[in-house]
Amino acid sequence: MSRSGEHFHPLSRLLHWLMALLILAMLFVGVSMVGDLSPRHTLLVGIHKLIGLALLVLVLIRIGVRLKYGAPALPGDLPALQRLAAKASHWLLYALMLAMPLIGWGMLSAGGYPIPLHLPALLPHDLKLYAVLRLAHGWLAYLLFATVLVHLAAALVHGLIRRDGVLRSMLSGR
Q1: pTM to 2 decimals?
Q2: Which backbone phi and psi does 7 adopt, to 5 degrees?
Q3: pLDDT tier, 163 (very low <50, low <70, confident <90, very high otherwise)
Q4: pLDDT tens, 28-81?
Q5: For residue 135, what is the domain's CATH number?
Q6: Local structure of 119: helix, strand or coil
Q7: Cα–Cα distance between 110 and 37 in angstroms, integer?
Q8: Ranges for the Cytochrome b561 bacterial/Ni-hydrogenase domain (predicted)?
Q9: Range of the domain at 80
């Protein structure tokens, strides 16, 4: 859904920037905890799980807000291939933001690990499934990081080179 207007709804902007901060924190925490056998490993894993659950809740809210309020239309002079890339990259970002915490939750379930907030297991205890999900979680984290970098680069192109209002639509309501 797209809407008329030049700016995203204020709630869309708030969710975007809050999730951007949490995703960056999550990526740094995730990288820090891999291979860390120090006493802080348990703390990092706990933080990672809680941020993951927060991101799952926020992405569900964000999807609802996006469906309700839509997004500003892309500039009319944007080439068709760039329009397609913009839509595809946003679909990919939403898919990854939804999949990553669900895979993490499934991974904890399959590994028999405790799930924060006493949430139920999504999957049965199965160490082979755990291994597959752990590998998928890692590779999808790399894909998420790459997609975020492309998203950031595109935003900077729109804001600094094209100056077409796309970046401004997520920065402020004015």
Answers
A1: 0.92
A2: -130, 155
A3: very high
A4: 898 888 877 788 888 999 999 999 999 999 999 999 999 999 999 999 999 999
A5: 1.20.950.20
A6: coil
A7: 22
A8: 8-173
A9: 2-171
